[in-house]
Amino acid sequence: MPSSEAQIRASVKYNKNNTRLITIRLMLSSDADILNYLDSLPNKQGYIKSLIRSDMARAKSENLKEDKNMETYRIKQDKLTLWGSNADENTTLTRAEVEDLAREWEKPMEELLEDLTPVDPCEIPDPGVPSGGNPWYAVQRDPSDDWSTGSFDLEEAKALARKYRDDPDYGAEDPLIAVIDNALEHPFCTEEIRDFD
To answer: Are residues 75 and 93 in the same domain?
Structure first.
C-alpha cells in the first residue's frame, strides 16, 4: 500500500487514468446465497472477471460457429502433400485464407475447395471452459501489462509479484498474478491473484 503523500497521489492518478469502478447492489435477503459464496472466496474480483471472460469467450465461440463467413476447412488426407510441408491433418483454414491462397497460387477457388473438407462447427473447441491443464501464472505490474512474465509454478510467480511490489525499481504499486489457461488455442485469464503473502 502507498504510504507517502506522493505515493498516494501517484496511486490516485494511476487509478483515475487506468481503472474504472463498477459496483453492484445485492439484497441481504434475496441474494444471501450469492453474498455467502462471494465471502468464502479469497479473490472476489478475480472470480467475477474469470466468469465474465469465460462467458465472453463462450459467446465468441458460438458466434464463430454460427457465422457462415467463418467456414473452416481441413485438408483431405490424400491431398496433404499438395499443400506443402507445413500442412498436416490438423491444419485448418478459414474461407478467407483459402480465398487468399487461391489468389496467391492463381488457382480457381473451386479447385482448392476440392482438396478440403468442411469442419463441423461442433468440432470447434469451446474456449470458455477452463482446460484444467497446467496454468501459466502471469505476473503483471498492473492490469495492462502483458502475460509474458511469470512461471508455471505459483510460488515462483508469487515471489516475483512480491519483488515487483516491494522493490521501488520495478515501480509496481498494485501487481497481480493472472492465472492463464494456456492449453487452449486462445489462452484466457481464469482468475486474478492479488494476495501473495
So the answer is: yes
- Same-domain status, 77 and 44: no
Buried b (16+ CB within 10 A) or exposed e, 139-168: bbbeeebebeebbeeeeebbebbeebbeee
Which of 92, 108, 123 terminates a domain? The answer is 123
Of 184, 162, 175, nearest in space to 57 by CA: 184
The single-letter DSSP state of residue 71 is: -
CB contact at 8 A, 79 and 115: yes
Record the cell numbers describing residue 180, joined without a space: 492463464
Same domain? For 26 and 47 the reply is: yes
As for how many domains the chain has, the answer is: 2
Residue 93 CB partners (closer than 8 Å, separation 6+)? 72, 73, 74, 75, 101, 116
Give the residue numbers spanning the domain of 143: 5-63+130-193
Q: What is the dihedral of CA 127, 124, 70, 101, to 10 degrees?
A: 110
pLDDT in tens, 68-122: 556 788 888 887 777 776 777 777 788 888 888 888 889 898 888 888 888 765 4
Model pTM score:
0.37
How many helices (H) and strands (E) in the chain? 6, 7
